[in-house]
Amino acid sequence: MLKKNRKISVAESIREGLIMSMKKDKNVILIGLGVDDPKGIFGTTKKIDKIFLKKKRVFDFPTAENTMTGIAIGSALSGVRPVIVHQRVEFSLLSLEQIINQAAKWYFMSGGKKSVPLVIRLIIGRGWGQGPQHSQSLETLFAHIPGLKVVCISNPKNAKGILISSIEDKNPVIIFEHRWLHEVKDFVPKKYYKTKLGKAEIIKKGKHITLISSSYMTMECLRCAEILKKYSIQVEIVDLQSLRPLDIKTIMKSVRKTKKTLVVDNGGMMYGISSEIISKIHENLNPREKSKFLIKRIGLSDNPIPSTRSLAKYCYPTYDDLVDKVNKMLKTKLKIKNKLLTKNIATDQPNLNFTGPF
Amino acid sequence: MLKKNRKISVAESIREGLIMSMKKDKNVILIGLGVDDPKGIFGTTKKIDKIFLKKKRVFDFPTAENTMTGIAIGSALSGVRPVIVHQRVEFSLLSLEQIINQAAKWYFMSGGKKSVPLVIRLIIGRGWGQGPQHSQSLETLFAHIPGLKVVCISNPKNAKGILISSIEDKNPVIIFEHRWLHEVKDFVPKKYYKTKLGKAEIIKKGKHITLISSSYMTMECLRCAEILKKYSIQVEIVDLQSLRPLDIKTIMKSVRKTKKTLVVDNGGMMYGISSEIISKIHENLNPREKSKFLIKRIGLSDNPIPSTRSLAKYCYPTYDDLVDKVNKMLKTKLKIKNKLLTKNIATDQPNLNFTGPF
Amino acid sequence: MKIKKKNKIKLYYEMLRIREIEKTIAEKYNEWEMRCPVHLSIGQEAVAVGVCQNLKKNDEIVTAHRCHAHYLAKGGSLKSMISELYGKETGCAKGLGGSMHLIDLRAGVSAAVPIVGSTIPIGTGIAWANKIKKSGKIVAIFFGDGATEEGVFFESLDFAALHRLPVLFVCENNEYSVYSHISKRQSKKRNITSISESLGVKSLKLNGNSIEEVFLKSKDIINKMRKDSKPYLIELKTFRAVEHCGPNNDDNLNYRTKNYLNYWEQKCPISNYEKFLKRNKLLSNYQLLKIKENIKKQISSAFDFAKKSKFPKKKLLKKYIYA
Amino acid sequence: MKIKKKNKIKLYYEMLRIREIEKTIAEKYNEWEMRCPVHLSIGQEAVAVGVCQNLKKNDEIVTAHRCHAHYLAKGGSLKSMISELYGKETGCAKGLGGSMHLIDLRAGVSAAVPIVGSTIPIGTGIAWANKIKKSGKIVAIFFGDGATEEGVFFESLDFAALHRLPVLFVCENNEYSVYSHISKRQSKKRNITSISESLGVKSLKLNGNSIEEVFLKSKDIINKMRKDSKPYLIELKTFRAVEHCGPNNDDNLNYRTKNYLNYWEQKCPISNYEKFLKRNKLLSNYQLLKIKENIKKQISSAFDFAKKSKFPKKKLLKKYIYA
Ligand SMILES: Cc1ncc(C[n+]2csc(CCOP(=O)(O)OP(=O)(O)O)c2C)c(N)n1
Ligand SMILES: Cc1ncc(C[n+]2csc(CCOP(=O)(O)OP(=O)(O)O)c2C)c(N)n1
Ligand SMILES: [Mg+2]
Ligand SMILES: [Mg+2]
Question: Count H helices, E strands: chain B?
Fold first, then answer.
């Protein structure tokens, strides 16, 4: 296996997953504004149209998100396997009627006659002053709806696996993709492989505290763990991967193991991801455990995200904040020089190479 | 005061609130499909157009929900106070882009220059075989968004008060109105009065257990309490009234008083109202309390609502189910003839007079 | 083009059958056993029949809340439909959908949903798949005048024109959206066929109450579509004879004037065609009797079937959430 | 109609001012102090100026992501705009909005938002309020060719026609939506002005790079609107000279052909008008020098102001969530 691994970015991994899926199943098509343009959706679809030249399979679209979704649903009912991508989750709000009323319920309301195998990739924006309408998370708007599957990519490896599994799935699957993950690199197998939908993954084992998170926030958790390791604090990280269905078994295993849990929400906490996680944990603990276990949460501040970087930086918890919070929860009173990891990246840049605009 | 009360229905109470608001502030207008038709939105807007004949203030609308919302936002920016009504919450999904990206954030993204005083009444359908697309709840889709206020009517008295407060509010307010409450009657003051937004209300005092709920489910809680009273069980009921902001103070007061709490969700529980309530309670209890307090939830089953009444009845918890659950939580092992209250109303009818269709 | 006698009778029969079925639904609705909203097509049968008679079995249709006529005209199973209205497990959607979610894949009835306008892009997507897969099938999308106010209507025509999709947009203009007359909702200068043309979709206005006009003109268009694989739109003026939703007449509400009602009553597509056929000796009283008997038998056996069928079992509730 | 010499100079001055401001933004963008996406209007100035010169101060405009030119042409404060781009508390939205959320209520710049099409209904709603309140104001809504693909575009025209609202829809057709040419998105038979007419809104195609044509024709229309209070649409062909988003030229990406670029470069509204004015002795070199000096001074003082301004304090984050 090792030989067949190489370090590639999340964007490259998604692209590879798309190409492999399209080669495997000729019914898979790619739809979205800009899927065939020079930038290719942050590189994730770059030149895929060139690879599949004979029969057109990559479709740019008019700016008509609601109809785009309806058309994808219709085509999915007739044997096509469409993958939609929106460059910002906000654009998909125009299509929630089709997603929630139609796609999510089609299998049910047709009495099991037809399901809608549709993948919708939603990109969460952040940074570079994009402001209130280009930086929301909004996962729970989808995760609340029975009939949808809702999953979150958090690294190069699961990017490809989740994408492939979603395309093979017979149901509408919403994939959340954080803009700040696209350039993150790691080892990714070359082969065609799946990451089971509905499973959380313990991506780091540890015994002192559990961090539960998803999407980009899992990166911050990893950084937090790296710092704390130097102080002999072993952090366990549960990467949710799937918000619906929710893998409560894996969550509870880790919660029970460390007895201290910090839920790290990738969005606003009110009626957010962390609300459901904490409720579920609460429901699963017995009274004795309840008094001994420590369960906390942290997440985005409860306001629209401003454009100015001078304020946007207060909205997102960083690994610094996580370290502080863990420090408090464990009562370790460590004096930590968090700066260890920051290579002086500005708070509105995903990485050093990035100099806007999106 | 008593003299000035009379028993009227929720629908009449809403209508009265609308008329009074329109008389008080000539900028208030009413918008929606069918607001001026013979049925007048289940009676809530009936003949209001006739009352305000001189200057047109009641506007039927083309079937164009997204633009309707944008137009209302625009008019609100220019001093009009629009009240929109959708006969089913599902239709409003077409307008979530305008509600979430625009209305909710306008005050923020204009740097405080303009807010959007807009009221959107969303009616939750239920029963008479309306099926998957006319019977969702979906409160948390809105309650998750900072910048919105989200409130729920649960009885004739707060119907008028909440409506008047919402219209006077300078922000976008989403009012949830359950179809099965429209015909429910009770005393309502004749005067112009407000029900403070953001406050929960303890609508029944009791010492053995707290039920926390909202919207129609509060009715079922009341019925449950009525039954249990005969068995000397005193139920306290917290009617949330507001989902955003959430009145955690009132919630915690009751939770601490009875030490046993059942959260009754008006919708699906996954990433639902109950998720946030339970998380907030959890965050507010200290470890000692956690082991002693019993906190549970109940809500709609996690699936689309079928048309056939033979299955729809399994989706909604009734007061029977609440009684059972309380019985279990209190370990009272009462043998209760729940039938006490049911006047043989079918499970798909809000009341005896109702014989469909909507 | 001329219509053969046999086909004329068939057109009449199909319309009458739909009418009689819906009349029976209306009659029996008050037994409170069909406990779901019903939007009857009484008065509008010529559109459904005239168009669908030109479609092949594996051509597809999608429709909206007012879907009974389209479902039946396309050949959807009567028994499954009535059972669906009764909420039984033998229903076309196993009782999960109700009257507004009729479906019969074998007959090419691909979808009906009650969110106004929402099947327009879905139908367009089916047509797109047909084009991609070169299936040669035609899709007809039925919708009302109200649905043409939804953004998805325009967006879908746009897409169909851009990709030259074999889809027929059928706008059944009964001038009302619930109680609202079209003049309250659309500018007098608005014109549905011009809209269509301006977006790049050829279109035609038809008399929706003349079965022969609907049949012949849509035959023309559908024949063209089979060759050139291009989208078309037809707008058919017609009249809804009973209330928007439910089994009754609601003329007492006076939202439609006496004049208006009188005008349209004289335009009933079925009684006029019956007169025409009789006048031209194409239909004898005896034949008519036979037809009516036949229809009656179908209806009563469908209702018997539905009534005798079982309600779905509890486990069905969780069976079809995920495939 | 004739344009007075004074007004001709004014038209030229306004265009040049916008061009120079945006060129300075482009220059300074690489200092990485304006850290927000910018969509420059370089090449499209004639539309903004030609229309806005006919609007009164209390008339209103709404616009979209590409809003600098409209904001400036309508009289929005330059200092507040540049400060907004720098994310400072002196910005027109206190730094909360950034380049895509310009607003200046005193100048009648009511809104800009970057969700394509979304300000079209909002602007229509402002016009509706104006009609209800009999304010006599006109609203102009600026949007691109891409925005005409959104359902809200149609729905808003529909509503404006139905209620006869005093709103001017201004479609700036630069043939591109990001990298996508219009032919990839819209049928060749699609026609924006015909769409408008079919919905009941009168409309006109204009050369968006001819400042005098834009000015005179929109003057005509706006004068009519002040009398008859009806909606109009104008479609103006024009050309975006730099990349969709950001400060650079992106011709190296080859999504627009050399021919296309050459063709449009010769149509630059500013250099052509400058030549015209000079040729006709309406503008001397000395005058031009003075104008440029004046503009330069405004710009450098605005950038100084922005740079010297403070970032907003933390408490601002929670100040404007609820009014
Ligand atoms: C998006 C949406 N808005 C509103 C409704 C409520 N509604 C149900 S049927 C109907 C009338 C639609 O009129 P039309 O399209 O002309 O069809 P008709 O009933 O005349 O056949 C309306 C407004 C709905 N179902 N969906
Ligand atoms: C609803 C929505 N979809 C997609 C986008 C991404 N987007 C930003 S600008 C733009 C181009 C719009 O083209 P056009 O309206 O012609 O304006 P132009 O950029 O040419 O001025 C697109 C698609 C968006 N902001 N909003
Ligand atoms: Mg109609
Ligand atoms: Mg453009």
Answer: 13, 14
Give the residue, by CA position, lying nearest to ligand 1 atom 11.
C177
Tell me the pLDDT tens digit for each residue of A122-172: 999 999 999 999 999 999 999 999 999 999 999 999 999 999 999 999 999
In this complex, the residue of B140, B270, B304 whose CB is nearest that of residue A109 is B304
CB D91 within 8 A of CB D103: no
The full DSSP string for B190-221 is SS-----TT--EEEE--SSEEEEE-TTHHHHH
Taking only the tens place, the pLDDT of each residue in D173-214 is 999 999 999 999 999 999 999 999 999 999 999 999 999 999
Nearest ligand to the CA atom of C113: 1
A95 contacts: CB under 8 Å, gap ≥ 6: A65, A66, A68, A69, A70
Range 8-37 of D in CB contact (< 8 A) with A: 30, 32, 35-37
For helices C269-279 and C45-52, angle between their N-to-C axes, nearest 10 degrees:
70
Pocket-forming residues, ligand 2, beta carbon under 6 Å: A 33, 63, 65, 87, 91, 94; D 65-66, 114-116, 143-147, 174, 176-178, 244
* Residues of chain B neighbouring D323 (CB-CB closer than 8 A): 107, 112, 115, 117, 170-171
**Chain position carrying tokens 């203009």:** C173
Q: How far is the CA of D288 from the centre of ligand 1 (A)?
A: 61
Chain D closest CA to A306's CA: distance in Å? 4
Residues B209/B330, Cβ–Cβ less than 8 Å: yes
Domain residues for the domain of B171 are: 8-187
- How crowded is residue B23: how many other Cβ atoms within 10 Å of its Cβ? 12
Strands (E), chain C: 60-63, 109-112, 139-144, 167-173, 176-177, 180-181, 202-207, 232-237
Pick from C67, C57, C7, C9: which is nearest to C290 by CA? C9
The CATH code of the domain that includes A278 is 3.40.50.920
Provide CB contacts within 8 A for C2, sequence distance 6+: none
- C139-144/C60-63 β-pairing: parallel
Give the SS3 label for residue B96.
helix
Taking only residues 148 to 167 of chain D, the set having a beta carbon closer than 8 angstroms to any beta carbon of chain A reads 149-151
Total Cβ atoms within 10 A of residue D213: 15
Query: Tens of pLDDT along C90-142?
Result: 999 999 999 999 999 999 999 999 999 999 999 999 999 999 999 999 999 99
Shared domain for A170 and A53, answered yes or no, is: yes
Work out the number of other CB atoms within 10 angstroms of the CB of residue B237. Answer: 23
Q: H helices then E strands: how many in chain D? A: 13, 8
Q: In angstroms, rounded to a whole number, what is the distance separating the alpha carbons of residues B349 and D114?
A: 46
Relative to beta strand B235-239, strand B201-204 is antiparallel
Beta pairing class for B81-86 and B119-124:
parallel
How many residues make up chain B in this entry? 358
Domain co-membership, B117 together with B242? no
Confidence tier at A347 by pLDDT (50, 70, 90): confident
Q: CB distance C189–D151 less than 8 Å? A: no
Residue A183 and residue A212 share a domain: no
The verdict on B16 and B80 lying in the same domain is yes
CA atoms of B59 and B49, how far apart (whole Å): 8
Encode pLDDT of B259-269 as tens digits. 999 999 999 99
Residues B24 and B139 in one domain: yes
What is the count of structural domains for chain A?
2
Look at the alpha carbons of B227, B230, B234, B239 in this order and tell me if their dihedral is positive or negative: positive
CATH topology assigned to domain C5-238+267-316: Rossmann fold (3.40.50)
Nearest CA in chain D to A131: D97
User: What is the CATH classification number for the domain harbouring A135?
Assistant: 3.40.50.970
Structure tokens at B292: 């002693």
